[in-house]
Amino acid sequence: MKIHGPNHTKVNAYQKQVHKQSPERIKEQSKADQLQISDQAKKMQETQQVQPQREARVEAIKQRVESGKYQIDAGKIAAKMLRFWNK
């Protein structure tokens, strides 16, 4: 038994789309992502120096984390998160 309907020629509509892709477009899709940093951003990174007070604080936190004495106040963090998201 054969079935011939009005849409018989459109059985594989997606096959046409596969053949429509040009080789140029396929090449574009295979390119890797690139990152470019502007000259102004590079200058900003070079001129910004870490403040001694901040560096000392970061070092103190590192030492507490490594020794296992670093405590986190979960309530304080939750309150700040709520304040941020409720803005």
Distinctive features:
elongated, 61% helix, 5 helices, 87 residues, mainly alpha
Question: Could you please describe the fold and organization of this structure?
Answer:
By secondary structure, this protein is mostly helical. It has a domain at 50-87. It has 5 helices and no strands. It has helices at residues 13-20, 23-30, 39-47, 52-67, 74-85. The longest helix has 16 residues, at 52-67. Pfam families: FlgM. Residues 1-55 are annotated as: Disordered.
In short:
With 87 residues, the protein is mainly alpha-helical. The protein contains 5 helices and no strands. It starts with 12 loop residues before the first helix and ends with a helix.
Helix content: 55-70%
Order of helices and strands: HHHHH
State the distance separating the first and last CA atoms: 67 Å
Helices, by number, come to 5
Share of β-strand residues? under 5%
**Shape, per Cα inertia axes:** elongated
Overall average residue pLDDT: 80
Q: Rg, please?
A: 30 Å
